[in-house]
Amino acid sequence: MKGTLGITVCVAALMAANAATAQELVIWHDKGDDGLAMIEEMSALFEAQHPGVTVTSLSYPTEQWFNRSIAGLNTNTGPDILFNDNNRIATIQQSTGRLCSVADLVDALPDGDRAYITDGDIASATLEGDIIMMPFQRVVIGWGARQSWLDAVGEEYPETWDDMIRIAQLFQDTDPDGNGEDDTFGVALQAGSAPSMIGAGTRMFAIAGNGVPYDIMNTDAEIVITDPTVADPTIGILQLFTEHGLVSPDTVNHNFTDMYQLIEGGRVGFFRVGNWNVAKWDREALEGDYVVGPYPSHIEGQPGHMLVNTVRGMAVPCDGDNVDLARDFVSFIVSQEAQQASLDHMGGVVRDDLDISGVTPGLTPFVSGEYPMATDSFMASIHPWYPELEEAYYRHLIDAVSNPPQDWDAWLQATAEDLQNTVAELQN
Amino acid sequence: MTTAVATATPRRLLPHLSRKAAGNAWHKRTLYLFLLPFAALTAIFGLWPIGQSIYLSFTESYTALSPQPVFVGLENFREILSNPDFLDSLWRTLLFTFVSVVLNVLVALVLAVMLSQPILERGRTLFKLAIFLPVITPDVAGFIVWKWMFNQDFGVVNAVLHGLGLPAFPGVTEPVSAFATLTIVELWHHVGLYTLIFLTNLQLLDRDLDEAARIDGATRWQRFRYVTLPQLRPAIIINSVYALIEFLKTFTVIVVITRGGPNFSTNFVSYFAYTKFGNAQYGEAMAMATVLFAAVAVLAAALVWAMSRGDYR
Questions:
Q1: Complex-level ipTM
Q2: What pairing do the DSSP bridges indicate for beta strands A306-315 and A130-131?
Q3: Hey, is the C-beta of B130 within 8 angstroms of any chain A C-beta?
Q4: Rounded Cα distance, A127 and B63, in Å
């Protein structure tokens, strides 16, 4: 009896001691199952270095993540770490001001880790001069085409915009899927909102296709949409809706989920491919029947690029219960082993020294370095009002789709002047 | 003499009435005690969020959800009311509401009158069920089906029109037709409830009045216009006010089908405010919601007043 009692007391004491030393970091994000699995694996790796520490994560729909994060940080009931795309982290900081600078952590990274973080990554992680998140996943976007459709129309992957228009017309006018129906479209786009039409449209073909640094405004707050390298892809995209009619008519209201239905339903030939899409599209939906490459260029002789569209990172609220441990973890996510987990589960990384032998064919172009990579200018990091400028620009773009102008150049000129006035107002 | 009594009576009775009222209140203390929890719940879950949202409309967006919101007075209201996009959204909301209220009440009235005809005796339950089912169908599921029906690539609406040799309907791909599409979908979703209310009232009509008018030689239209319709006035008021409130707040159908497009043609105030949350513009979003709340309250009160003014009863 005495022995049993003693064992019970010992076990209870051990459990109490363990509870006293165990620590849990909580991360909030919106990355779904892939994000949960990645953090679970990172947690196991981190625990090996920090015994007794577990890292758990909760994934919310994006809007819930926003509202919960802002409310949580403002009332000291938030998580230890926030994980999301740079623009969303920036919005949280603008709404709360409660994210701590991680500039010292970036500086303190081992040289072997720090070397992989580029100036573009730092720019994305910066808001008004302060680095507010540790960048660790680049969201890379390329241009995709249905391989079987290219074969059916006897074409290769397009290098120029004109090639793409010609092939897209074939996709639409012939019956590339061979089902005997006139039910295919040339190009999948989305135009239901500013991020859809600009972020996933005009920006792609200007910055990635033509390799220019800006798509609406430069760092001096000058509107650049009349520059031919930006004007050509901008008008080109609008004409996909009007003169060419190479997109589904419903595209005017599409966001990414509608666009995915069109792509995954096998009814469109050209489409945007993000490195987060390929895991699904390689094994189901498209079943690997696509080829990914750089965005077609408008400039004769200049190759197109793939685009680093956003950068994801982790940010640490200053008022958390485990700030020091959270800062250790966000330093850890750039390590080789953590980056391998990131690659394996989400396809996005900042390092290029990882084992890519296991990646799927769809993901290979994103990590192999075979195509030149352009980087977004992350204007919202410099000018917090930039999303409002995009909203204003979107109104012009979607209005041009509904009411196509006779003279596109004159329309672009008038739009540029109006946007320059908007910039002046926003700066004030 | 009569005047003197009339003016003197209240003075004499007032103290007595006050004492009586106080006594009644004391005697009803048990009733008030039982009502208290529900009154408190109503205040907490009904009135407090409304008050809080109005309060937040006077605060700076980036501090709205913080423990110490920064008070900015009418700045958010000045901002939205000087924004042509908001005024355009408000105008579209009012136009949509007007069209939808008139259409829903009229169609519901016609349907109710048709369903009350003796000739439909046998199939009445089936028709009533068919008209009421959309009301109890989950919003989102119904709207998604409508979205597919109007799809330009494989939608059944254009397939039927094509089969009949008619031109295609642009659905939600063009501003005017998108507005019309939402009107149709919302009619489908709501008209059953208004029909049911009319139908119930039609069954309660005083048949003697109709009989008397018939004996006096009134035509069918005259009997409907001068006998039936006046008796339906309470139902018309209820349906109109409820429809007004419902359509001013139109939201789910936009989220599911158009997302405010194309070219902002269906960007009604509720949805416009919702999109502001995405950019953390909470102050402006709450100001929009407050303007909408005020519009609903004022218009509903005005409608009740206008329609009750000529009540013959």
A1: 0.77
A2: unpaired
A3: no
A4: 18
User: Per the confidence metrics, is the pTM higher than 0.90?
Assistant: no
Residue ranges of chain A assigned to CATH 3.40.190.10: 22-136+313-367, 141-308+382-427
Structural domain harbouring B274: 79-309
Question: Is B66 a domain residue?
Answer: no
Angle A121-A122-A125 from CA coordinates, rounded to 5°: 90
User: Given pLDDT bands bounded at 50, 70 and 90, which one contains residue B16?
Assistant: low
Q: Determine, for residues A66 and B280 on separate chains, whether the beta-carbon distance falls below 8 Å.
A: yes
Give contacts of A 241-280 with B, CB under 8 A: 248-250, 252-253, 255, 267
Q: What's the rounded mean pLDDT across residues B166-172? A: 94
B102 inside domain: yes
Give B183→chain A minimum CA distance, Å. 17
Q: Quick one: CATH architecture of A22-136+313-367? A: 3-Layer(aba) Sandwich (3.40)
pLDDT digits (tens, 9 = 90+) for A378-419: 888 888 889 889 999 999 999 999 999 999 999 999 999 999
Q: Is residue B263 part of a domain?
A: yes
Closest CB to B65 among A74, A91, A249: A74
Fold classification of A141-308+382-427 (topology level): D-Maltodextrin-Binding Protein; domain 2 (3.40.190)
Q: pLDDT confidence of B21, banded at 50, 70, 90?
A: low
Average pLDDT, integer, range A3-24 = 55
Whole-angstrom distance, CA of residue B218 vs CA of residue B210: 9
Nearest by Cα to A307 from A205, A194, A197, A188 = A205
Helices (H), B57-83: 75-81
Q: Is residue B146 part of a domain?
A: yes
User: CA-CA distance, A195 to A255, in Å (whole number)?
Assistant: 9
What is the mean predicted confidence (pLDDT) over B185-196?
A: 96
Quick one: how far is CA A97 from the chain centroid? Answer: 23
Strand-strand pairing, A126-127 and A130-131: antiparallel
Over residues A18-43, the pLDDT tens digits come to 444 568 999 999 999 999 999 999 99
Element containing residue A139 per DSSP (H, E):
strand A134-145
pLDDT, one tens digit per residue, over A327-375 is 999 999 999 999 999 999 998 999 999 999 888 888 999 988 889 999 8
| A123-179 confidence digits (pLDDT tens) | 999 998 899 999 999 999 999 999 999 999 999 999 999 999 999 999 999 999 999
B148 touches chain A (CB under 8 A): no
**What CATH code is carried by the domain that includes residue B163?**
1.10.3720.10
Q: What is the three-class DSSP state of B277?
A: helix
What residues contact A369, with CB distance under 8 A and at least 6 apart?
A352
Residue type, B262: P
Most confident residue range from A9-23, A257-271, B3-17: A257-271
Q: Which residue of B has its CA nearest to A65?
A: B278
Q: What is the total count of domains within chain B?
A: 1
Is B89 near chain A, with CB under 8 Å? Answer: no
